[in-house]
Write a structure and sequence with these properties.
GMP Synthetase, Chain A, domain 3; 256 residues; Ribosomal Protein S8, Chain: A, domain 1; 3 domains; 20% strand; alpha+beta; three-stranded mixed beta sheet
């Protein structure tokens, strides 16, 4: 979590926003410690704040990067701006107030409509199909413009995944696990995660040091947890807050 310091909390915030290149409206700011003046020059402390881009800013960035990538391969694809202020449940709790405590089927139906609206705004309209597998509900987005909905390194798809999970947690009466997929991306990603888990475990065993993986959705972290659960020489745990929560693979001290 990025920490910034300043003589005052406002100065620390300004420093952080400048470093990240975002405005105050696009950030999640937490004051960790207020500044202390001290006495006769002793005990003086700077203010400390943590600043991260908001979910809205992350999705906006994902949209921009995705459209730029697609434009390289699709000359006639128009640039589309997603109005994330209306698309993200994290920023529009009023919508969740109208839709709340829904039974499973009603909640899943509303999520399908929600994802349909987002894909339309992204100029990548998709037919949403659902499938149940291993206690999860998989939402398949059937579209002719898979590149837009997947994004560079899957960034857009992970943004959609986060929105879907936030939405379902807000409106559903019961706890539901949902996965958003486009084409066979998740299947290919699963194979990549398996190889990542194996390579990471080997590196941890070779160096004796922990490895911090990039942030990824909860169900992907679970896949790596599961892949390494039978390797007694390493152990795994998650750190950070969604959607920046990441996995740590470290040596099991019993074997070192």
């Amino acid at each position: 979590m990025p920490i910034y310091e300043g003589a005052t909390s406002e100065e620390a915030i300004t420093t952080g926003l400048t470093a990240l290149g975002i405005s105050k409206d696009e950030a999640v700011i937490e004051v960790i410690e207020e500044a202390k003046k001290g006495f006769l020059g002793m005990g003086k402390k700077n203010a400390r704040v943590s600043i991260e881009p908001s979910v809205t800013e992350e999705i906006s960035e994902a949209v921009t990067e995705t459209v730029e990538d697609v434009l390289v391969n699709e000359e006639q694809t128009p640039v589309v701006e997603l109005d994330v202020s209306t698309a993200t449940m994290a920023e529009e709790p009023a919508i969740a107030d109208v839709l709340s405590d829904l039974d499973d089927e009603a909640a899943l139906t509303q999520l399908a409509l929600y994802l349909t609206n987002i894909t339309n705004e992204l100029n990548a309209p998709a037919l949403v199909k659902t499938e149940r597998e291993n206690g999860m509900v998989i939402f398949h987005l059937d579209t002719k413009k898979q590149g837009i909905l997947i994004g560079k390194h899957g960034k857009m798809l992970n943004a959609l995944q986060y929105l879907a999970q936030v939405f379902i947690h807000r409106v559903a009466k019961n706890k539901l696990s949902v996965v958003v997929n486009v084409g066979d991306y998740r299947q290919k990603r699963q194979a990549i995660l398996q190889r990542l888990a194996e390579r990471t475990a080997e590196k941890v065993k070779r160096t004796g040091r922990p490895v911090f993986l990039e942030p990824m959705p909860a169900f992907e972290r679970k896949q790596i947890h599961s892949a390494l659960s039978h390797d007694d020489s390493v152990k795994t745990h998650s750190e950070g807050d969604e959607p920046y929560r990441y996995l740590v693979v470290e040596p099991n001290k019993k074997y070192y």
